[in-house]
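Q: A reviewer asked whether we had any structural model of the full assembly, not just the individual parts. We don't, so I'm hoping you can provide one. Inputs are below.
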Amino acid sequence: MGVVSAFAALDELRVRGARLTKPLAIVNFGDEEGARFGLACVGSRLTAGQLTIEAAHRLRDGDGVTLPQAMEAAGYDPSAIGPDPERLARIGAFVELHVEQGRALDLTGDPVGIASAIWPHGRWRFDFRGEANHAGTTRLADRRDPMLTYAETVLAARREAELAGAVATFGKISVEPNGVNAIPSLVRGWLDSRAADQATLDTVVTGVERAAREYAERHGIDLDVVRESFTPVVEFEDALRDELGAILGGAAERPVPVLGTGAGHDAGILSASIPTAMLFVRNPTGVSHSPAEYAAEDDCLAGVAALADVLEGLACR
Amino acid sequence: MGVVSAFAALDELRVRGARLTKPLAIVNFGDEEGARFGLACVGSRLTAGQLTIEAAHRLRDGDGVTLPQAMEAAGYDPSAIGPDPERLARIGAFVELHVEQGRALDLTGDPVGIASAIWPHGRWRFDFRGEANHAGTTRLADRRDPMLTYAETVLAARREAELAGAVATFGKISVEPNGVNAIPSLVRGWLDSRAADQATLDTVVTGVERAAREYAERHGIDLDVVRESFTPVVEFEDALRDELGAILGGAAERPVPVLGTGAGHDAGILSASIPTAMLFVRNPTGVSHSPAEYAAEDDCLAGVAALADVLEGLACR
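A: Here is a predicted structure for the entire assembly that you could use as a starting point for your response.
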């Protein structure tokens, strides 16, 4: 929803004739998903000083293009990369409106909810290195095939997540040489894992890595595991969350649901620096990060109205 | 070795002052490996009429570039694509020299061998379709994750190949959307499998497909299996093979080893149309299709000398 819903809420405030006593600003952070450079929330991390300029300059996409090169190609000035503490210090509260990415809200029957926390989550890169060889002439016993170890690790991740009540996913893979008739020399798989608390997440990731190392040893595979990103549990500020509850609960017939989420957000990054809150709009299928992601129009309008209520409540006092 | 060794053998014939009574030609077929367009031996298949012009025009690489477009970009005339029966009819015998891609020859202690047969082999594309979704917020029970089914199928292929004494490899994969925080909608894996005879190969591939379908059903995954290429067993012509044995055995102290191979070759394609034979040079590690592929210089020279002997024997009669 992001920027579009923020403008819609601003329109709603104009229609209401709201008189702000504090300035309002809308921000659109770059690459919240991290799909291109592998690190989620690059824009908000940079703003909040959680990503150094040096580290940002080292980010490369799958084709080897660096973040500064990509910015330049898109018409932006890469010398602007860096933290922005002065701007950050001027923010009294940051509120992000987002479609829920699970079904928790749908189960409550409410169109809008308030975030309590974001699960701790991280990304780990598993590099399985074997020996490239001919798929037709290399005896099975002579192979060091990293695809086998990768496959066993994918299944281990599912088992560990099931046991712990967490989630673990291998959704991205890169193979060299990736030829039909070649045993791979390298299979690189990325593990995304999240859990309600840090101890559970540690249990899952440690279990997956232990299983992967056992498989690797058995097949003569070299394994490197690198944690590429990590975001500890985010508990949104109690005071601001309660204030949102009071603003929205005053109009609603019953308390607005408060719920945690497994998805990372720019609001989670900023919460380390400034008071931050999130509103969720009901997702009837729970499907997200897919063309099938959907929210009913009425629920979207309810989300915009809730954001307008919150902005009015916070900026018109 | 291919073209370079053929020119070296020609040099050797010149040095010997060999007087040919039949014309010799050297041919360099395009894309024997099929790495770019997915189909091995495109050049020899076209020449021999085993690939129709229409099918050749439909070949696309991973970026969607067609074979004619790629030829044009490389400065070749795509209208030349097609069979060449007249030229084929003028060939009395075709001999291909190749480094061995296994260790069979090395185990005999000989530097040069003669091919008996090429194992039947094929490539099958497995398309596992699930539902793209958010890796952080989708409960395990709600997932239709095709990566899990792919992983189970990779391990099933290894088991089936072990049971049958064949080889089976998943060395190439393509994932959509291939994002760290997204459950894939599509995992496409390519199976390469070969065996000493057709019945064994059928057993392996049928077994892998049956296992994949069971896993797919359990996870709510749609599975399509497409045979992208297939080459039946190639038995090189007895008469020509015996002639090579006589030519080389006359100089050697003992019979030259005759051995089968699991690797496909242009010679295997042409053998359906014309008398065809292959010579192998010893590969001390068996490593092939890898930067580590290696043959000793003395063995390469022995291969060139053997090819020169064979050419002299066949073309100077």
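A: Points you may want to mention in the reply: Chain B has eleven helices and eleven strands. Chain B has two domains: 2-118+233-315, 121-230.
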